[in-house]
């Protein structure tokens, strides 16, 4: 099956720029575009790159088939000559960038796209859509995982965001260390473990709570998770153990002061001999609520709304800027939004202990001399429009993030507002 | 072409509930589920319903084909019997709800889905994903349009959100009164006008700003919009008129203190005889920034980030609750999240002048007696799993919202934080 074309996930102006540039010949100038962000969301100490795999897929599926060309002609977006050029469009350039799971900071050169102006300018919108969304969710997810301190995390935010954002969010939540997702499509598309048992509706459907629990245990076995807060929680917990026995897998509490309720439930479970029955809490949890529950007997968290909305930062503010034309650095220079022209490459420097020190951004694309504890942050992603071999997998990148977070100075992991965990330094030519 | 199945845009637990309920026979009980929100986002005075058309489409395309069944079997989500039942799944129930463009308030019964438990429970996630996302964007868009007070609004936020949320956002921005979108896919899929001319990259690509302007005018004609803030704005405006003549369509300013810059640009344009050249501003505008520019000579706004992120409220907090089982009202009743059981219907009451007074929520589904200035807010959407005839179009709903906003008490249109514009009143049985 041919994947759907991504070519109309594009802003109108990319095509009008193309039309003008084809007409005057500048369309064929060799260019470099760079994706980066000028700042992290308010008070955040690091960002986590998400979506790179999806970006590469979108670039490969960026083509103008009959249907796309027909619409552009009908709507009069561009003329005959441009349509003809678009019919043969395929991206043949090179892409380098930060892999998923890598940390980023203000000015980090996250993605560098090189090719003719024509082929690279068209990718702006779809590249940014994916990076801005997926990195926002990955960044929030990493803070939550870090707050959970090793406890099980289940992503269950699908219902709070667009049905396709939901799938992408589940993917990067897993990247960031979530254990499972409720989203079945993410399970199918990306092989992520999915989880789920029952909602309040299931209890309400039945004549009694006991009938609901009996039915669930008969169907899913005693290792299931019973939702105990439809009516009275104490009675719910009692009933859960009565029905499933002390080998019950877990109970879930979805409302109220979950810290207090978890403590009471733990005592009650223990008194009933259900020492191994776990307690999962859900309901409006964000990284701060998760951290606040650290001292409570909570074994797992279900997180929804705050995850899929980036916990206050639903987008990442990344831009895709033309930085080089035929080898000449270019940059906008009016008012406050000044940019640095020219292709860049970054080195993350570390102490011998492994602690990150600086993000050093170098002009040019030749790798500078690296110290023994330094490393380049970009890797090659595409050459001549094709993905390079042996790109890291989702599992590789999950591990990458885990390691990268350990490398941050300890203040960098604090949830409170602060400065970026390491400074970005711009090296001179 | 068969539309893609939406059946895995579903949380795992909907299928495990189904499996248990099929096993114990409760799956076939006749149920009503209701989508509503307990509160509006912090300080908002009204919500705007968005996404209903997409919800109906998703319900129609909710089916388990080979690919979906294969995944569910492979992943062991449910067993053989349930898979067999799913293979024949089609929604055959009834849906009533608020049409798009209708205003809503806390407790408004936005969507009522009636059918067997089995057929209705499976729709929870996809229905909520769409309503929560699209209504959040529609609600933010309506505030912006109202702040712009009749000036032209262009939606250009695609790059700041997931590539599919972008298309849905463009659609509801248009619903809310935006003039056009930059998103080409929204143009193709929904027939929404698209717009765009050039970015800073186009100027930087050329050897001089003059060469860029000349190229654009040669390609798009003098009625185009020239982006004048790549280098020096005053020089940019001068050059724009030199190149295009005083019949230039518009200039765009994308950075800096756009109010001050617009005033200066207007004077400069007038002094150059370009009295008809319009001024479009863009760059981090939200409803407050738009309102603050009311006194400035701005003819149009380009809005991106704040629109697609719901201007601080990226989701709507809607839930999908089981409210009735075989004619018996049901409701969760532990802790603070108490819900009202039973199917509901709402009447918007008005003064004879047309000003809305209350949202009166009645139990049951028989229409109460209506006063001459009252109206029911729900309309029939689906009967027996098929869309009813003559559903309102996007254009109809655009007009509906325009009229609904006029009906609000004047405080209801204030951008500042406050109470819902009209109170929700729950009538007794």
Automatic annotation (TrEMBL), chains A, B:
The organism's place on the tree of life at top rank: Bacteria
CDD domains: NAPRTase_A
Keyword tags: Glycosyltransferase, Ligase, Phosphoprotein, Pyridine nucleotide biosynthesis, Transferase
Pathway entry: Cofactor biosynthesis; NAD(+) biosynthesis; nicotinate D-ribonucleotide from nicotinate: step 1/1
Post-translational modification note: Transiently phosphorylated on a His residue during the reaction cycle. Phosphorylation strongly increases the affinity for substrates and increases the rate of nicotinate D-ribonucleotide production. Dephosphorylation regenerates the low-affinity form of the enzyme, leading to product release.
Disulfide bond listed as a keyword: no
Catalytic activity, as annotated: 5-phospho-alpha-D-ribose 1-diphosphate + nicotinate + ATP + H2O = nicotinate beta-D-ribonucleotide + ADP + phosphate + diphosphate
InterPro entries in UniProt: Aldolase_TIM, N/Namide_PRibTrfase, NAPRTase_N, Nic_PRibTrfase-Fam, Nic_PRibTrfase_pncB, Nicotinate_pribotase-like_C
GO molecular function, one term: glycosyltransferase activity
Domain Nicotinate/nicotinamide phosphoribosyltransferase: 153-343
Annotated EC: 6.3.4.21
Start and end residues of each Nicotinate phosphoribosyltransferase N-terminal domain: 8-132
Family label: Belongs to the NAPRTase family.
Function noted in UniProt: Catalyzes the first step in the biosynthesis of NAD from nicotinic acid, the ATP-dependent synthesis of beta-nicotinate D-ribonucleotide from nicotinate and 5-phospho-D-ribose 1-phosphate.
Protein name in UniProt: Nicotinate phosphoribosyltransferase
Species in which this protein is naturally found: Saccharopolyspora taberi
């Amino acid at each position: 099956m041919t994947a759907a074309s991504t070519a109309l996930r594009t802003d109108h102006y990319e095509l009008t720029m193309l039309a003008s540039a084809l007409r005057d010949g500048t369309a064929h100038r060799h260019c470099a575009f760079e994706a980066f962000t000028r700042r992290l969301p308010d008070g955040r100490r690091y960002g986590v790159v998400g979506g790179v795999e999806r970006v590469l897929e979108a670039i490969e599926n960026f083509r103008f088939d009959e249907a796309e060309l027909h619409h552009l002609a009908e709507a009069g977006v561009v003329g005959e000559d441009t349509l003809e050029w678009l019919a043969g469009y395929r991206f043949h350039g090179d892409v380098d960038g930060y892999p998923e799971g890598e940390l980023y900071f203000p000015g980090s050169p996250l993605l560098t796209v090189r090719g003719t102006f024509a082929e690279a300018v068209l990718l702006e919108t779809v590249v940014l859509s994916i990076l801005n969304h997926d990195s926002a969710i990955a960044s929030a997810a990493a803070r939550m995982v870090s707050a959970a301190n090793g406890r099980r995390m289940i992503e269950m935010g699908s219902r709070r965001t667009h049905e396709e954002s939901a799938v992408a969010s589940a993917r990067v939540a897993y990247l960031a260390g979530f254990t499972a997702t409720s989203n079945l499509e993410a399970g199918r598309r990306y092989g992520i473990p999915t989880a789920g048992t029952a909602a309040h509706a299931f209890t309400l459907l039945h004549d009694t709570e006991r009938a609901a629990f009996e039915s669930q245990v008969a169907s899913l076995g005693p290792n299931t998770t019973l939702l105990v807060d439809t009516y009275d929680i104490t009675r719910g917990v009692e009933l859960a153990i009565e029905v499933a026995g002390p080998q019950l897998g877990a109970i879930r509490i979805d409302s109220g002061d979950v810290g207090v309720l978890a403590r009471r439930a733990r005592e009650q479970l223990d008194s009933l001999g259900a020492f191994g029955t776990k307690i999962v809490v859900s309901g409006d949890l964000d990284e701060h609520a998760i951290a606040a529950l650290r001292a409570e007997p909570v074994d797992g968290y279900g997180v929804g709304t705050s995850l899929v909305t980036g916990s206050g930062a639903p987008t990442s503010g990344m831009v895709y800027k033309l930085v080089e034309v035929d080898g000449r650095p270019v940059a906008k220079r009016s008012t406050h939004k000044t940019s640095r022209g020219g292709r860049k490459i970054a080195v993350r420097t570390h102490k011998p202990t492994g602690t990150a020190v600086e993000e050093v951004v170098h002009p040019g694309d030749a790798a500078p001399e690296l110290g023994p504890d330094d490393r380049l942050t970009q890797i090659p992603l595409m050459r001549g429009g094709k993905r390079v071999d042996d790109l890291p997998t989702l599992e590789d990148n999950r591990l990458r993030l885990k390691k990268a977070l350990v490398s941050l100075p300890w203040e960098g992991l604090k949830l409170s507002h602060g400065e970026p965990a390491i400074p970005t330094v711009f090296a001179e030519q």
